[in-house]
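G., the chain you wanted modeled:
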Amino acid sequence: MNVSVSLELANDKCKGVTIVLGAVAPTIVRAKKAEEILLKANSLDKKAIEEAAQTAAKEVTPITDLRSTAEYRQEMVKVLVKQALEKSWARAK
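Predicted structure as tokens:
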């Protein structure tokens, strides 16, 4: 599984964001609802990041294959999106 995040900040507010998930579903998935949460947040903080990660996990319909179950993939989406957003946030400051 992999996550890619592109983040643009202005005064600690999210001005642009793209979240893409790979190896979760048959094709790559863009977490548009999670992106919307970050764009609408008053400031980019841990609460907004946590909410976006939870939403991203709800957006996907993961697959089960030889490598992992759908349940595992869904849980890992939360973890990986949160980590990617926190790292991107720290770098963008």
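Residues 2-92 form a domain with the Enolase-like; domain 1 fold (CATH 3.30.390.50).

Shout if anything looks off.
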